[in-house]
Each structure stands twice: as structure tokens, then as C-alpha cells.
Write a structure and sequence with these properties.
- By secondary structure, the chain is of the alpha+beta class.
- The chain has 17 helices and 14 strands.
- The chain is 45% helix and 16% strand.
- Helix 4 crosses helix 10 (211-227) and helix 5 (91-101) runs parallel beside helix 11.
- The model has no long low-confidence stretch (mean pLDDT 92).
Amino acid sequence: MRMYDIIAKKRDGIELTTEEIQFFISGYTDGSIPDYQASALLMAIFLQKMNTRETVDLTYAMMNSGDTIDLSNINGIKVDKHSTGGVGDTTTLILGPLVASCGVPVAKMSGRGLGHTGGTLDKLESIDGFHIELTTEEFIENVNTHKIAVVGQTSNIAPADKKLYALRDVTATVDNISLIAASVMSKKLAAGSDAIVLDVKCGSGAFVKDINGAVELSTAMVNIGNGMKRNTIAIITDMEQPLGYAVGNALEVKEAIDTLNNIGPKDLTDLVVTLASNMVYLGEGASSVEEAKKLVLENLSNGKALTKFKEFIECQGGNVEVIDDISKLPDAKIIVQIKSPEDGYVKSIKSDDIGIAAMVLGAGRETKDDILDLGAGIMLKKKVGDKVTKGDVIAVLYANKEEKIEDSKRRLLNAYTFTSEFVESRKLILGLVKDDKVELF
């Protein structure tokens, strides 16, 4: 088998075989296929696309290019959630303990933030003492005992994806549904869960900017998951503005605590309830999504989810005192109010610009080696549809470096647009993809 022939075949729009895809992934991972040939095939795939079978085979080969995690020693059906990335996406911090409080095991591997989207591990490490490195035995014991554990991804999960993504990033081949879907699902499937709920973001703060692209990506990922015998659904959600009000590591932990106290932002709470209900149902913690939703809402209101969060923090070494005393979280020395430049209504907020404004303050990384300022970030005070008067505070910047303020302030103000006409609040849950069915709301 020759790489030249595989490139020519896909260039001409001919379907690749399972063996040809495996040959490519295996050879590129071990270094026997050079970058220039891999780049040529990626461009051919980008232009000619892949069908469902090819995409599933690509995902399978990438998944098996490194370690796969065996969670068979964990009791029950393990359900995972994956978000395609967003700004202010605090859901995992709330979802984990909430779903665990309903008796469904959550064995989660998470990553760190890069760019304008935050990472779950960084947020959890805002809590003093919390450690994300557990042995396999500790990880399994925590889930069996407490129904929840969150750890960092091992370095050898889907190594083919790491190499291919770096190459796609510099060869203008990122924006292809099959390549995106295989990248996401190879890592998620290698992590060993039995069922997966996907939160596919759609809008200015997401990779996919429109509903058609979100449906296409959701369908591809659901087909991959189901094709590999993992019960998979996708929920399409709005990311035309940040989720909740907090953008930044410690700030988002505070917002997660508020939400578990049942006093969090409505949009964040609504999304968490929707995702949790589907996770509990897939984990057979309830006989229907509707029954699961009742249990989820009950555990939010009766304090069981918050108690489970404390248990989770404590069993991974974190200081549980932060739950009742948020002053023990990292803070900022400089607090700057940003005021509305005009009267009217908030028409739109560019999520990615808000994320970058927070990153400038130190809440995110421009490169993987950047050191985070865990206390830095932004609290939004006005969102789409809110009425404002000139001089009203629309956001608050939290920083520890004075020289970062002006750049962040400029970016934040540029993210907001205003209008004199009434603006409807945005719809959050946009659609559901399950099996071969697409339902838009």
C-alpha cells in the first residue's frame, strides 16, 4: 500500500477503504508518513469530504492510535458530556455533582483552556489543594464510592489527533466536518464512557457559526458514537453571547457554586438541567428524560447536588471551605466597572471578543505555556435584550495587572452593540440530534 495512491484516490473523490485509512493514521502517528503527504491527503479530504463510514473509520483509527481507557471496573453506565467549546461554559463543574447526586457515575477526563475558551481543569485548580492527578485505581475507587471523579487527559490519548490537528492548523484544513467530528470523538471514545451527551455550540463564540453547520457537525458526531455502540445524542445550544455572567476561572467557580445553590443565572441553569436530564436518562437513572428532569430539579433545590460537590472537592484534596466562603478563592486587586456608552437595549455581544478580553487580563492562555491568573476575568452585568441607560455598568473587569486593563476594556466595549429598538432575549436550546432525527426548536 502506498500513500501516493491513497492521496490520488481521495483527490479524485473516491471512497477510501478501512485499511487505507488505518494505514494513513498508523503511518503518520509513527512518523513513517511525512508531513507533506499527510497535508496532501488532508487537503483532498477537505475538498472531497468523507462519507459516514469513512468518518467512523477515521475516528476508530485515531482513537486506537494511543491509550484507550478501560472503565469496566466502574459500576453502572458511565455517561460523559462534551462541549465543543464556548465562553463562560461552566457546565461541567455543575453537571458532574448534579448527575452524580442522581446516582449516575461521572468518570470524566477534562482538558485545559487555550485561547478564548476556558478549561475545566484550570477552573477546578482555582480551589486550593484540588489535584487532578489520580492513579487509575484512585480514579475508579472515587467514582465507585462517590459517583464522580475528574482528572486530566493522559498524554497518550489519541496521539494521532494531536499531530493531525497541529498540521490542520497550519494547512487551512481545520474547517471540515469529518475532520472536526473525528478529532472530538476519537478522544471522547478513548476515554471509555458508555454513553455521551454532546453540547454543540452555535454562534459567534463557537467554532460553528450557524445552525446548519451545527446540525451537520452534531449529526456526524452522533453517527460516530452510535456507530461505535455508544449511545450518543447532541444538544445544539446558542453561543451568540457568553453563557451565564462569569468569564474567568475563580469567577466561574463562584458562579457554579451559586448555581448549585439554586441562585445561578437562568441560562446556565437551564442548560445544566437539560444536559443533566439527558445524562441521567442515558445512565438509566430514570425511565424517561421527563422523569430525569424532575429528579435533577429536585436535587438542585434540596441541596443534594451541592453536598455532592463538596464531597467531590474534598475527595480530590480541595479546600471545601470555599463552598461556603468564596473569599477563599483567588481574587483580583484591580476592579474596573465598564459603563454603557449609550441608552437603549443590548442588541448583541460577540462571545469570542469577550473571551479574548478576559484572556488579555490573564484568565486564558495565548500559548500552552502561559501561566494563568486564576483571579482574573470578567463579570457581565447586561446581556442581550437587557435595557440600558448611558452610564449603567454593563460589565466588571477583574485584574492583577494594570497594564492589561485598557486593551481588555476596548475589546469588551467593541463586543457590545446597542439599539434603540426592543430586543428579544435569545433562545438557548436550539435543537436535538438523536439517531437519525433532527429536531429544531
